[in-house]
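Complex 333.
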Amino acid sequence: RPIEQLSTEAAQQEIAKLQDDLRQYGIAYYEQDAPIVEDYIYDAMYARLVALEAAFPQFVNPDSPTQNVGGAMTKSGLDKVVHPAPMLSLGDVFSLEELDEWDSRTTKSLGFQSDYNLELKIDGLAVALTYVSGKLVQASTRGNGTIGEDVTANVKMIKAIPQVLNEPITIEVRGEIYMPKSSFSTLNKQRELDGLAPFANPRNAAAGSLRQLNAKIMKQRNLSAFVYYTAEPDILGSTTQSDALKRFAALGLPTDTHNRVITKMSDINNYITEYTVARDNLAYGIDGVVVKVNRLDDQLDLGNTVKIPRWAIAYKFPPEEALTVVRAIEWTV
Ligand code: NAD
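Predicted structure with nicotinamide-adenine-dinucleotide bound:
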């Protein structure tokens, strides 16, 4: 039902039900690495909850999935790590109109039109890597954003992640661990032969591999990674996101080189069109495009909410199934 037609009581009930259902789906997805609904269903329910909570803010509570990053990690046998700065999620949009609205809000807050760095949204899970004097000493998952899980032993099995940087600096960097498409299909074929349930998708396979306790199993899983963030850009001497990516690469860290700087939001159209097609030929899964305010001091000015940065937004691709339907309709008309 349209939100403006809801009574306060009906809204309260719907909000409580959505919060409950999404919390359950979140536990299956983040803690058990075994989702029970498709992402696009989760996303649609989440978007409805965001809209309802905006219209009825008296029913927002601190336990709502809209106010929390990831899961509570009750089941994992891994040690806990407190993040020096919270690891956040990303706001997401599903249409160009919503991207324009985000651009208008950002331009208004900054007082000028920012350049944006466009990056592919890698379909994996976030990781923080701590290097001391150039040596990898700790790796942790995002967890609930404040406290993550120690996955150092497993991350040391990932060839793409250097154990020693090209410079002896002390820095925490963050990025995405993912399972390449080829590793995913090999793994699922093997699981089938072994009579085990296949993983639902490469993201869950990557998360399940990283969060299990046997580093030998991890080695066989052939995960990879891209680094895209540090909360300490001064250490790199970078003033823009696009430059930080270059500095990460110079340090020997894996970076995705498909990023592009644009000067106005409409320039994103070509990028989205290009990667909606090119994603099939990439060696790893992507589920959208991340738009980031390019200047790092502007990012700081915009700041974060409890859950997401205001200086970035994820444009999510339509789900593959929905895309197939849209294409089928296009072909028949
Ligand atoms: P998200 O995955 O939509 O976006 C935030 C994450 O994107 C970041 O934490 C980071 O790990 C990642 N990312 C990838 N490339 C990046 C880049 N270039 N720059 C910055 N970050 C990048 O958000 P989330 O909070 O991790 O999870 C929410 C999403 O997870 C939902 O939209 C839904 O699709 C899915 N989910 C599904 C279920 C389910 O039951 N199917 C349950 C919970 C969540």
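Residues 25-26, 28-29, 35, 37, 39, 42-43, 89-90, 92, 119, 121-122, 126, 142, 176, 228, 290, 314 surround nicotinamide-adenine-dinucleotide (CB under 6 Å).
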